[in-house]
Every structure is written in structure tokens, then in C-alpha cells.
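Before relying on records like the one below, remember that each one covers exactly one chain. Contacts with other chains, cofactors or solvent are not represented anywhere in the record.
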Amino acid sequence: MLRVAASLEQRSEHPLATAVVARARADGLSLAEPEEFEAVPGRGIRGRLDQAEVLVGSLKFIEESIQGLSASTRQAVEQFASDGKTPIVIARSGKGLGVLAVADPPRPGSAEAVAELESMGLEVWMLTGDNERTAAAMARQVGIKKVIAQVLPTEKASVVKEAQSSGLRVAMVGDGINDAPALAQADLGIAMGAGTDVALEASDITLMRSDLRDAVVALKLARRTLSTIKQNLFLAFVYNSLAIPLAAFNLLNPMIASATMALSSVSVVTNSLRLRRFARK
């Protein structure tokens, strides 16, 4: 079963596919080259191996294509989902072969990042194609309160657009090809450094590491930068409001006026250089 799934998954860029293929190769399995391959975004993949049609994906995807999945297969899917694992159903020639479970534990620091974002006054949502049980179990581990599960790639972008239409400004963090439409739609798209090329191209910011805490650092640095810009504008306004009238009424020597004008630029640059002392916490 693992060999069948991995032989088809090796043509996919999805993170779950990468995990399945890695396990098959670690077990020393020899993978076959699929004769046909088609990815169905947000649902699974289909293809042909040894002249037989093979389906790999979610329970819903398999049920749409074949009839009569066993009760034990459904029970396995429910159990894996309740445990916070992603179930992958495999079918061949119109019959169910079995279920694989991929554990996708939260990245180190994810819970810390969520807590930090909420402390900054931001609302954190989980937007995922996983089933509701798996998504809810994962959300509990990292402290996310709002979960939108079983969302197709195109629907992710629609959810983002709907949030924007309600007056929210949306930042989207993702790493897969399925996240690309939502990354492009969001006001700010943040891609993980280990993400797919499509996700990287669709984003505004690319993190060098796949660590959610870096997204927090990026947002804090952005806020600090905007604060510094406002300070600079205030300094320049106050300075010019005082100096220009004095120079206009000839109350300042022209040489002194030109020197003080240069000093105003120095004060703005010096204030901006404080950003170099910004440190991640």
C-alpha cells in the first residue's frame, strides 16, 4: 500500500506527498513510475500504475470516485483525524486499499508565535484543507481559536477576500502551492523559506526559515519602521516650522541657516539608524 501511494505521490509537490515518499524510501521500497498523473488541488491525486487506476487523497475525494468503502476504512480515518493526524486514503481499481496517517506536529515555537501575535492585538485564524477533526486537534495544540477547515485552494482566497470586504486587513502565512492564491489575495503574503516556488512568487515577504516566530519578528520590525517614519516626519515638521520663519525674516545668518538645515537631515538619519539595534526577542 505504501509503495502504491508513494509511487504516485513522488510526482506531487504537496508536503504530505513529500512525507509519504520519504517514508517509502526510508523503508527501502522501490517506487514505480506512474503512467498517468493528475493532481486535484485540495483533494488528492489520481493516476495509473501498472495499468490500474490509483487514487490517493481525502476520504471525500475517494468517495466521489468509488463506491463501497469498508466500515473499517472509515473508522480508521475518523480515529486518525481525532488524534490530530492527516488520513490519506488509497484506492486501486475501484477498491479501497487502506489508510495512511501523516502526523504533522506543530513547528517549534508555533504556540509561542500565536500567543505573541494575539498580544499584538492580532486575530489568528487557521485556514486549512484538512478535515475538521484534524484541524481542531492541531489548533488546540497551538492555541488558535478560530478554525476554517476543508477549504479548497481557491476557497482560501475567497475566505481572505471575504475578510477584506468586512473591513479587515489580512496577512496570510503559507508554504504550499495550495496557499498561493490566498497569499496573492492577502494584503500581506508571507511565505516560508522552505515553501514551494509558486508560494514564494505569490508572497510579499519570504522568511529565510520555516519558523512562525520569524513572521512575528517581521511584523514587529514593520511596526517599528512605521513608528520611526512618523517620528522623522514629526521632527522634520517641528524643525522646519521653527527654522524657516527665522530664516525668512532674516533672523538667522544664511550660513547658520544652511548648516541647521543639514543638521535636520542628520537628526532624521540618526533616528532611523536606531532600527539597526532592533533585535528579535
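The chain has three domains: 2-103, 110-215, 220-277.
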